[in-house]
Amino acid sequence: MYELKTKETDNSVIEFIEQVDSPKKREDAYRLLNIFIETTGFEAKMWGPSIIGFGSYHYKYESGHEGDAPLVGFSPRKAKISLYFAPGETKREELLNKFGKHTTGKACVYINKVADIDVEVLKALINESVSFLREKYPAK
């Protein structure tokens, strides 16, 4: 049976941020922590060893695969900061056009630093992602 790697843990978010090597990236992580908490209203939780997630939802695919994931989150990685939003959210591309300097992957948006982006657009991306996932995967 497939075992989900990224699960919510009891590890300390603050201890994780304090272990970030770069002082600038650590400062950005604290800034993002405050933005995500303020925007979602959720407490920050560690998901796996390196993702700071907010809220959660339970998904089940047609294949039968199911699990839990954070509604939104971020990770201050060595190369870039990864931002996690809902894949498939329809307003994402429109918002990303106004976001600032970034690159994208399948489910991630990558930034170098918070100063490169529009924080108000970040808040909109967070809100859209949470709304989209809550509608797609309503709590039972």
Task: For the structure shown, list the relevant keywords.
140 residues, alpha+beta, Aspartate Aminotransferase, domain 1, six-stranded antiparallel beta sheet, two-stranded antiparallel sheet, globular
How would you describe this structure to a colleague?
It is a single chain. This protein has one domain (13-136): Aspartate Aminotransferase, domain 1, CATH 3.90.1150. A 6-stranded antiparallel beta sheet has the order 1-2-5-6-8-7. A two-stranded antiparallel sheet has the order 3-4. The radius of gyration is 15 Å and the shape is globular. The chain has 140 residues and is an alpha+beta fold. A hairpin with a 3-residue loop joins strand 1 and strand 2. Helix 2 crosses helix 4. It has helices spanning 13-18, 23-40, 92-96, 119-136, and strands spanning 44-47, 51-54, 57-60, 66-69, 72-76, 81-84, 103-104, 108-111.
